[in-house]
């Protein structure tokens, strides 16, 4: 290998690193946009679960509905599998959300802050 060959290889390596950095910025921008969309989707979801909690409290229904939760878990695991997402992760994510929803429904039932679904 000549000095010119080594210099050319070095330039190519530097260009590859710069291109990788550029791609990294683009991927992170996409991830940031998706994260923002997830936050907005979760806010919309909790807006609906807030209304569900108010209905349950007004009619003396329990905060949790284990049969519905199990149906949702089965459905979400199927969707995750079809989408190429780990179904176990999807289930854990849903269980986390449902636990928070139930906590909010209990607070509503017990006369807590009914105007907000925030922790």
Cα shape: elongated
CATH class: Mainly Alpha
Count of alpha/pi helices: 3
Alpha carbon gyration radius: 24 Å
Estimated structural class: mainly alpha
| DSSP helix fraction | over 70%
Strands, total number: 0
- The CATH topology name reads Chorismate Mutase Domain, subunit A
Count of domains: 1
**Average of pLDDT:** 90
How big a fraction of the residues is strand? under 5%
Please describe the structure with a list of short key phrases separated by commas or semicolons:
119 residues, mainly alpha, elongated, Chorismate Mutase Domain, subunit A, 0% strand
Describe the structure.
With 119 residues, the chain is an all-alpha fold. It has one domain (3-109): Chorismate mutase (Chorismate Mutase Domain, subunit A, Up-down Bundle). It is built from 3 helices and no strands. It has helices at residues 3-58, 66-83, 87-109. The relative contact order is 0.10.
Summarize the structure.
By secondary structure, the chain is an all-alpha fold. It has three helices and no strands.
């Amino acid at each position: 290998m000549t000095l010119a060959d080594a210099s050319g290889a070095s330039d190519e390596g530097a260009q590859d690193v710069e291109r990788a950095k550029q791609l990294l910025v683009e991927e992170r921008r996409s991830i940031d946009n998706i994260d923002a969309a997830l936050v907005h989707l979760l806010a919309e979801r909790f807006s609906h679960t807030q209304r569900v909690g108010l209905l349950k409290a007004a009619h003396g229904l329990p905060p949790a509905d284990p049969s519905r939760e199990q149906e949702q878990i089965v459905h979400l695991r199927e969707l995750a599998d079809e989408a190429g997402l780990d179904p176990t992760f999807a289930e854990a994510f849903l269980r986390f959300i449902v636990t928070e929803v139930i906590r909010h429904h209990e607070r509503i039932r017990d006369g807590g802050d009914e105007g907000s679904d925030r922790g």
